Amino acid sequence: MNLPPALSVTELEARIAQISSDIALQQEVLKNLERKKSADQRQLNAIRDPVARLPLEISSEIFLGCLTSQRKPGAHVAPLLFLNICNAWTDIALSTPAMWDTIELYFPGADCLRSWLPRAGKRMLTIALDRGLDHSVAAILHQHATQLKHLTLREEVDDELRTLAAAVESFPQLDNLIIGGLPDKYGDFEAFRSSAVLELLRLTPNLVELTFHSIQIEGFTGGKLVLSRLTSLKFGELSNADRILMPLTTPALEKLVLHDASIYFSLFLRRSSPPLDKLVLDYSDGGFDLGEVLIHVPPSVTHLELNSYTRSMASSFSGLENLPFDSLQNLRTLIIKLPNSSNLEPSWYHALLRFLSPRGTTIAHFDLFHYHSPPVVDGNLREGFRRLVDNGMQAWIGPEEHNYLPGWLQQPNDQ
Predict the structure, then answer these.
(1) Strands (DSSP E) found in 270-363
(2) Cβ distance 356 to 389 under 8 Å?
(3) pLDDT tens digits, one per residue of 43-71
(4) Fewer CB within 10 Å: N-end or C-end of the chain?
């Protein structure tokens, strides 16, 4: 058997280099073929696709119907998904500004915003940022400041709010602003300085709705702020942000949701004199007098909700029955929600009845939601609620799945 002559090291290295070169060449040829195939496939998809043959107005509506309310960027989620199907779908997506007027980003995404927002054309924008503010993002928001309609900011610290306030002169069209806190790596919420919040609010002269969520406010450095068009102000759970009421005046306010109303609440109402229609008060702390709180509520209120997360609401109701009759004189709806641990004695219901009876002709809807066994009611209590119902009041007492009141009223008064 004759063996091939042995190759020298130099010859072997040369052969390996040649083979590597040939492999690289074939790989490049393969890549070119893949690109041509992909381009031809996109053209074929466009020819076969019935959507591509529809008028743009119709195909755009079909695409819009595929969107979710939260438009988070993702290659496999509309609208970016439409850019990866075929040329026709790409053209439709890029020719439909309404597909790009909303975006939600987690962590800073300046590059994404730079490519996304121009596709919205001149449409008004809705932007939500979770830990998404930095100097680059603030600069982009400055470029689109006149288009911004709805803005949600959820941050760990207030430095980002100051960054935005320093970058933007004004948000003249912004009518809905949500400011939320986020926990740090230890699960704690860092307090926001009131000055940082006010700096941002001063950029929103036409704000209509303002919401705070999971945000603690500390300190007050002075100054006043009038939000003349604000109609809705809401403080979500874990918020003591009612301190921001101290510098605020809102003469057009119609809806207020507040946690643990403090002295700032009464001063705010007196200063603003708003045409308040709906008031929701949530309480997580005890030691308050509900009557003292509600006596400052303007008579324009027609809808009142009282939500307690402790047993303190039950003990505070005695103050409510002593309210002057001209307080809450236009109230049409009263909703009270108490925690499961609240133990309501018959005397509590008598206090409730003394509040409701003088207003029986104005209050049309009353709900008392709680989850404990109802007490044994006496004839006076039963007759009092019967008169309210006979006069047209729609009433519910008990858990949301069961109304105790009809059973009470069916019993004779001697039981």
Answers:
(1) 278-283, 303-308, 333-337
(2) no
(3) 776 677 777 778 888 888 989 998 887 78
(4) N
Is residue 253 assigned to a domain? no
The DSSP element (H or E) to which 360 belongs, if any, is none
Determine the Cα–Cα distance for residues 272 and 246; give it in Å rounded to an integer.
11
Residue type present at position 18: Q
Question: Tokens in use for 166?
Answer: 């320093």
Residues of the domain holding 345 = 277-415
Cα 318 from chain centre: 35
Q: Can you tell me which residue has the tokens 């997360």? A: 309
pTM of the model: 0.82
In this structure, is residue 326 part of a structural domain? yes
Question: What is 122-171 written as a DSSP string?
Answer: T--EEEEEES---HHHHHHHHHTGGGEEEEEEEESSTHHHHHHHHH-S--
Last residue of a domain, one of 57, 78, 99: 99
Last residue in a domain, options 99, 120, 139:
99
Specify if 83 maps to a domain. yes
Going from the C-alpha of 269 to that of each of 177, 252, 295, 332, the distances in angstroms are: 21, 11, 11, 20
CA distances from 30 to 25, 38, 187, 322 (A): 9, 12, 52, 86
